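can u do me a favor
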């Protein structure tokens, strides 16, 4: 049964739950697209760095009853840095609700473009929501190499891929 999703601003007291969402999402969901060594490298955090990262961005959490089901961040430059959903809440529109809230924030702040580095796992979600792939990238984290995708979207308008290519030239 689908539960109601409520989106609110992140509070530092949410930190342990946000970390849990991240770790479970990487180890249980993204692991289908990355090998064990990559997953182990990715599923680590530096607590102080993450606390700073979350507090210096617009960070929203999705709540389902008493659980934090997911979270998303946006910096002032339009970078969607983090979007993760707990495996127990996949396919319940949690990521979509978070993205809609983030896009509303971007419009309110006159941020003309949102960009992200999407994992192999997240790429189809972002494409369904109007993001275009700009480039496939190889990134390194803790001595492991990963494929991800630089993607972007103009939250105030819906561009087709053809229109995007015309604008880019």
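np, heres the sequence
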């Amino acid at each position: 049964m689908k539960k109601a999703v409520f989106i609110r601003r992140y509070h530092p007291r949410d930190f342990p739950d946000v970390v849990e969402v991240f770790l479970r999402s990487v180890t249980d969901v993204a692991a289908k697209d990355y090998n064990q060594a990559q997953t182990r490298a990715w599923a680590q955090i530096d607590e102080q760095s993450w606390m700073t990262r979350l507090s210096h961005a617009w960070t929203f959490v999705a709540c389902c009853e008493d659980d934090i089901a997911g979270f998303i961040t946006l910096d002032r430059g339009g970078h969607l840095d983090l979007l993760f959903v707990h495996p127990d809440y996949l396919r319940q529109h949690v990521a979509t609700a978070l993205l809609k809230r983030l896009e509303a924030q971007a419009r309110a702040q006159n941020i003309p473009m949102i960009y992200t580095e999407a994992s192999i796992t997240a790429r189809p979600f972002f494409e369904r929501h109007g993001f275009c792939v700009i480039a496939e990238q190889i990134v390194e984290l803790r001595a492991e190499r990963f494929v991800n995708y630089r993607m972007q979207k103009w939250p105030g308008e819906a561009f087709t891929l053809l229109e995007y290519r015309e604008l880019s030239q």
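The first helix runs from residue 15 to 29. hope that helps!!
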